[in-house]
Amino acid sequence: MKTGARILIDSLKEQGVDIIFGYPGGSVLPIYDELYDADIRHILVRHEQAAVHAADGYARASGRVGVCLSTSGPGACNLVSGIATANMDSVPVVALTGQVPLPMLGNDAFQESDITGITMPVTKHNFLVDDSLRIPQVIAEAFYIAGTGRFGPVLVDLPKDVLMRTVSPDEILPGVPDLKGYRPTYHGHPRQVKKALELLRESRKPVIYAGGGIIAAGASEALCRFAEEMEIPVTITMMGLGAMRSDHPLNLGMLGMHGTRYANYAVTECDLLFSIGARFDDRVTGKIDEFAPNAKIIHIDIDPAEIGKNLTVDLPIVGDAKVILEDMLERLEPEDRIIRKSWLEEVGKWKEEHPLTAGNGGGLHPQQIIREISDMLDGGGIIVSEVGQNQMWAAQHYGFKRPRQWISSGGLGTMGYGFPASIGAWFACPDETVVLIAGDGSFQMNIQELGTVVQYNVPVKMMILNNMYLGMVRQWQELFYERRYSYTELPFVDFVAIAKAYGVPGRVVESEKDVVPALKESFETDGPFLIDFRIEREENVFPMVPAGAAIKDMIGEHVRQDVGGEPVEQEAD
């Protein structure tokens, strides 16, 4: 005979699960009792939100489905922002939640919450398991849904009586998905693929616009080959960083609100925009009516709901980015390999005239810190960011070399994501150097996970870009609200003292000359290490596209306020 909890553990092992991030509670005690003897590793976090973020970081770094576990009621509710984060960024996560016994559902029992109802808008799918015999099938379906098509989070809610019930192994349903209505499309329609090549052949100023779908599909090599064969410049969303080496001659870097000037100019001037695995979100497009105004648009995406959602496209292709790019590569004819010398020269001129710059003058500049980290790791390691200015500086200035080495909350912009995600990333890739780039505001949202890194000796290198502000909000208040810094200034925190109280070594850096020695000490330390970089307090992220503006209308480092309070560019950065 087997309990439902035993069946659950066996089902997880069948799916190849070897690690779970979680926090125990009453409704999941049957699961934890089985975990006591199971050969699945459990990582005890200090908050359920950290469990789902760690599972998310694990999934992004490894390409596998991440798993988290919480108790019912408040424990399950604490997963919601992390589930929404994974949903917005298409990350395969399975969240297991405890639930009150079936007869108590709907009676406001102790620690009851309708977690399937709460998470319905932010999951790819969710299940309330009402029969112990169905657990293997539900788990198989959950993992299949999470890790196929457009990836996403799936929640499995497990009532305590379902976990405790004892059944005969002969009665258990097999762990085989039965999803008649779920059939993701992987191969692009042949006529559409042929038409895409025809449009590319006719184009004289094409740009490839690549998103996180390239990473998810494992299409980075195909993307680079295609761009090189066709000699087409590539711009990449924040979620797609690492899909092409940062120093590749065809790489224009990130586009959009804090993208490079040359990427935004190229998109504005192109006559064909070839979008692959990107969703035309507002942070990329700016004023939608002026986004790629001269271009025909090809849009490849595995999720048909994304095509035409934000703007009308000329040629939609539903399917997997890698499959379609490889199909297009096989179809290439000699006449498709067009030398667009004048276009590449124009783009190259923009790159020369508008490079990304680091801060100048006295004080400690975050851009230079990021560049020093990149140089020291030779563009390697896994870089995990929090959200805000620290995120944009890292995205702009780190020299990424490969996919899955950049992990950040994109669509939801979840502060507090980075620290627990870096823990998950290290468990996925323990041979990699994992670096967390954090702001002092974001870091304090899950600072308690210092206890987790100490308990498991997770050697995450924590780099806090400390300006004693909620920096990105302050930047907007400076530029658009006449420096009325309303509730964005943070009091002094001795992060090194807090880290040492947990058992993590660290040091404060206040001058440029101490940056490299501190980084060396961090990377040479066997275990976690924290550096509190006291950066210039009012350093801003530039370039920047103001809200509602076209992406070509960027503001730079030298701005003033006109009488109407709108920023007016005086000098390009």
Quick description:
The strands form five sheets. Strands 3-2-4-5-7-6 form a six-stranded parallel β-sheet, with helices on both faces. A six-stranded parallel β-sheet has the order 11-10-9-12-13-14, sandwiched between helices. The radius of gyration is 24 Å and the shape is globular. 36% of the residues lie in helices and 17% in strands.
Notes on the structure:
By secondary structure, the protein is α/β, with parallel strands linked by helices. The protein is globular. The protein contains 23 helices and 22 strands. Mean pLDDT is 95; it is low at 559-573. Helix content is 36%, strand content 17%. The chain has 3 domains: 2-171, Rossmann fold; 190-353, TPP-binding domain (Rossmann fold, 3-Layer(aba) Sandwich), CATH 3.40.50; 366-541, Thiamin diphosphate (ThDP)-binding fold, Pyr/PP domains (Rossmann fold, 3-Layer(aba) Sandwich). A 6-stranded parallel β-sheet has the order 3-2-4-5-7-6, with helices on both faces. Strands 11-10-9-12-13-14 form a 6-stranded parallel β-sheet, sandwiched between helices.
